[in-house]
């Protein structure tokens, strides 16, 4: 597996990481045995970066990672770089909010460290920014966590380029995480470029379009078991059928190159910049093998041009989120 640097002064990690939201029931059932099999395959395939969060499965994702480390030789734990996130809070009454205060972030970080059985994480994200708290203040809190030794670097999820610049003026930001794929090109309107300029890694989640950029996109029957996608504009009719039809030529092209559709989508993302680190997530070993193969594939200028012809910017039908799902990300274009 090729390697890329996680931020300006961060560690070298695998060119793709593993998005550990899939180590929860978000996209379908997952148990500890299945999680262990996926993590074994990550090791076998050279994936050394795990990206999780305190809310994935209400802590189940982190618990699976911690249990896996506990079941292995101590060296296994140190062979991975780990990123986790905090800041999305749900009150006992079920009211959700963002908490960027030091007390909450510190308590959640300590909880994550204990759950995973590690002394520090390589990367700690503010999962969603509280617009009522200056990002300069939050960055100061995160810088203190670095000084304490509990984290080696920090980042933000789904922030605007302008917010990144404000944070970076206080302390270097190791990474920004946002959705980016052939179906979501909005990061190219400033965020990808700003990350490159500042030496910040761009960590791309949902790099295969939540199944649209795979050999077998979810159909309506499958979507009934995935509430998030069932209510997502791109997966509601007539958009779903239109999106599957729009990506069919891309599937055929991937096959002609000897790749899976997901593999070609990953290869394309890696071609967009050496600071970009996709974090595909899956519950299936075969799918993990597909993205690992994609990380090894070289995109030529000719292939890139053909992909742009097949899936030009703006091909997707429907927004990437509905209004409720837009709660939290900063809109900047």
Report on this structure:
The protein is α/β, with parallel strands linked by helices and 333 residues long. It has one domain (3-211, 268-299): NADP-dependent oxidoreductase domain (TIM Barrel, Alpha-Beta Barrel). Helices cover 41% and strands 13% of the residues. The strands form 3 sheets. The chain has an 8-stranded parallel beta sheet. α6 (161-168) links the parallel β9 (154-157) and β10. α1 crosses α2 (60-71), α5 crosses α6 and α6 runs parallel beside α7. It starts with a strand and ends in a 23-residue tail after the last helix. The relative contact order is 0.14.
**How many domain regions?**
1
What's the number of extended β-strand segments?
Answer: 12
Number of discrete helical segments: 13
Output the radius of gyration.
19 Å
Briefly note the CATH topology name. Answer: TIM Barrel
Q: What percentage of the residues does DSSP assign to strands (E)?
A: 5-15%
């Amino acid at each position: 597996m090729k390697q890329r640097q996680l931020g300006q002064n961060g560690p070298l990690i695998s060119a793709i990481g593993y998005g550990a939201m899939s180590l929860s029931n978000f996209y379908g059932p997952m148990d500890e045995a299945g999680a262990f099999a996926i993590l074994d395959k990550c090791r076998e395939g050279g994936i050394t970066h795990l990206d999780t969060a305190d809310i994935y499965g209400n802590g189940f994702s982190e618990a699976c990672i911690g249990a896996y480390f506990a079941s292995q030789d101590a060296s296994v734990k140190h062979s991975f770089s780990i990123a986790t996130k905090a800041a999305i809070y749900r009150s006992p009454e079920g009211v959700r909010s963002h908490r960027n205060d030091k007390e909450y972030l510190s308590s959640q970080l300590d909880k994550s460290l204990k759950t995973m059985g590690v002394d520090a994480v390589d990367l700690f994200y503010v999962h969603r920014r509280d617009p009522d708290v200056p990002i300069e203040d939050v960055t100061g809190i995160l810088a203190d966590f670095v000084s304490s030794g509990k984290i080696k670097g920090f980042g933000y999820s789904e922030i605007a380029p302008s917010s990144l610049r404000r944070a970076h003026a206080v302390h270097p930001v190791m990474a920004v995480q946002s959705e980016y794929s052939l179906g979501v090109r909005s990061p190219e309107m400033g965020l990808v470029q700003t990350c490159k300029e500042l030496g910040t890694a761009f960590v791309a989640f949902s790099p295969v379009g939540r199944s649209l950029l795979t050999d077998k996109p979810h159909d309506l029957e499958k979507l009934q078991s995935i509430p998030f996608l069932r209510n997502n504009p791109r997966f509601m009719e007539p958009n779903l059928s239109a999106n599957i039809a729009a990506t069919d030529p891309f599937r055929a092209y991937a096959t002609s190159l000897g790749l899976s559709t997901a593999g070609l989508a990953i290869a394309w993302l890696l071609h967009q910049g050496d600071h970009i680190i996709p974090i595909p997530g899956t519950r299936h070993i075969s799918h993990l093998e597909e993205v690992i193969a994609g990380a090894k594939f070289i995109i030529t200028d000719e292939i890139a041009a053909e992909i742009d012809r097949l899936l030009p910017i703006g091909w997707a039908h429907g927004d990437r989120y509905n209004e409720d799902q837009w709660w939290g990300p900063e809109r900047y274009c």
